[in-house]
Amino acid sequence: MSIPASLQSNLNATASQLTEYFMHFVEQQGIVDKALQQALEYALLNGGKRMRPLLVSLVGELLDVNKKELIPVALAIECIHAYSLVHDDLPAMDDDELRRGNPTCHVKFGEAMAILAGDALQSMAFQILASAKLNPRASLRQHELILALSKAAGPAGMVGGQSIDLSSTNKQISLAQLNQLHALKTGALLKVCVTLPCLLSENITTSEKTVLQQFAEHIGLAFQIQDDILDVTADTQTLGKPQGSDQQANKSTFVSLLGLENAKQELNKHHYLAIQALRSLAYNTEKLETFTDFMVTRTF
Ligand code: GRG
């Protein structure tokens, strides 16, 4: 299943501007160790659906944020996402050999270099946000952008979720605990894709921001549930990772906890609530609704 036609031009524009900004940024750094440069470029540029940058672009468009301001924001988030995947694939974590149908970063460049590439991508994310040339009004919010991303990525966000995930391996956990784990591990970064464009918007009200964040929480959980469903239903070629890999690692998933049918119900619930949140807003949310439908029905 490919991206819906109505989102294709947003995705194409965002993806190409992101690559251009990234390449220019990397060039400016004057990285001495070319092996490190190759590894971090591989992690960021070697495929990926660019769902987070697309979400930033769609929320920005909804709120009439200048497109130029959104690119560094989208790139900073994608750098955090790419670093998290590189570290998640390491032998000490999920020990995966394939990512996006290609060798994982540590398989291609060695474990130590993959750790460093992840570290570099993480610091680059904040450097990109801190050095972004925003318009005078938006630049007043620059520290808030950095603060929100650091919270979402850090111990009370994505890293915290990953840590709970690792410590709950081989343990029975409740649905509430699984929801909390994924709200942090996968959800925090998706939520910040909404929070950052809201910070750049000049007109958004507090209640509209709350509704958009609720929308993001539901798509975050729906995205993870669909990932768990795909893990048991899709073939290896499609996902680029071994089928049932989370089950093999003895991790609780929505499917292992609820069964396939109830996991699908849970997915439908979050899908419905995400759409309801959007429809309660006085904006044209058609594209974000299409994005939501795609996130929950994706097959890759
Ligand atoms: C190592 C600090 C640290 C955190 C890792 C997000 C994460 C935390 C690990 C990823 C594990 C995983 C596969 C979760 C399932 C949902 C998910 C985030 C899938 C990957 O995101 P996509 O599908 O990836 O957007 P692409 O390749 O399209 O960029």
Continuous helix count: 16
In oligomeric terms, what are we looking at? single chain
From the N-terminal CA to the C-terminal CA, the straight-line distance is 8 Å
* Radius of gyration computed on alpha carbons: 18 Å
Secondary structure category:
mainly alpha
Number of domains: 1
- Secondary-structure element pattern, one letter each: HHHHEEHHHHHHHHHHHH
CATH arch. level architecture: Orthogonal Bundle
Largest sheet: 2 strands, antiparallel
> Portion of residues in helices?
over 70%
- Strand segment tally: 2
Corresponding CATH superfamily: Farnesyl Diphosphate Synthase
Mean pLDDT score: 93
Determine and state the CATH class: Mainly Alpha
Each distinct ligand: geranylgeranyl diphosphate
Strand content: under 5%
Strands side by side in the biggest sheet: 1-2
CATH topology: Farnesyl Diphosphate Synthase
- Overall spatial form: globular
pLDDT < 50 stretches:
none
Care to describe what's here?
One of its GO terms (biological process) is phospholipid biosynthetic process. InterPro entries: Isoprenoid_synthase_dom_sf, Polyprenyl_synt, Polyprenyl_synt_CS, Prenyl_diphosphate_synthase. Pfam families: polyprenyl_synt (PF00348). This is Geranyltranstransferase. Keywords: Isoprene biosynthesis, Magnesium, Metal-binding, Transferase. With 300 residues, the protein is mainly α. It has one domain (5-297): Farnesyl Diphosphate Synthase (Orthogonal Bundle), CATH 1.10.600. It has 16 helices and 2 strands. It has helices at residues 5-29, 34-45, 51-62, 67-88, 105-109, 111-131, 136-139, 142-153, 158-167, 175-200, 206-233, 236-239, 245-248, 254-258, 260-279, 286-297, and strands at residues 98-99, 102-103. A two-stranded antiparallel sheet has the order 1-2. The longest helix has 28 residues, at 206-233. The N and C termini lie close together (8 Å). The chain binds geranylgeranyl diphosphate. Geranylgeranyl diphosphate binds at residues 48-49, 51, 84-85, 87-88, 93, 100, 158-159, 162, 185-186, 224, 227.
